[in-house]
Amino acid sequence: MAADGKGLVGHAGVVLLHQVADRVGLTAALGRLWPGGGSATWRDRAQVLLGLAGAIVLGATNLSEAEQLQAHHGPLFGVPASDSTARRTLAALDERALARIAKARAKVRRHVWHLLHLRPGGFPWLSVAGKRLTGWIVIDIDATIITSASNKAGTAVTFKKTWGFHPLACWCANTQESLSMLLRPGNAGSNTVADHIAVLTDALRQ
């Protein structure tokens, strides 16, 4: 290896994310949700979504940035989907498609949690006040403000007098996984019962 600055790829850690998705079956599970295309220019929708997920982890905040980050990894993953292809993919995700994706995620999650049980340290049970909560899955529910610089669809003024969104999310405290999320306008309440029930129901299905 020569330290000449050539042939280097930044953000190489994203390779591990793709490999994990492949190894645990997430890539294959998502791939089965969409029919393959007959054209040479067809983009596998599962790969488009996984590419977007990786780009978000690397810091992408919009589809253009996601395309640029994925292009940076072209030698590893091939030519990325364009931002317009990503936009069409997301726009095509109706309630039925989202339900199928959630079901596939839940199945893969069960497999991953089984693997966690088999490791030497076992599943990461939490401890509260010195007591180990074996067998307990703890879900954190939290709403957070995400500001927007422009009047995007679904935004509104927030209680902090800013402008943006106020999504509500559920996280597994044991594994730090995002289980479900509900995108809401900035003026949505922090304690809206219907929203809490909806996001918690989706989380429990995971």
TrEMBL record:
It comes from the Bacteria. Residues 2-205 form the Transposase DDE domain. It holds the Pfam family DDE_Tnp_1_4. This is IS1380 family transposase. It comes from Streptomyces tateyamensis.
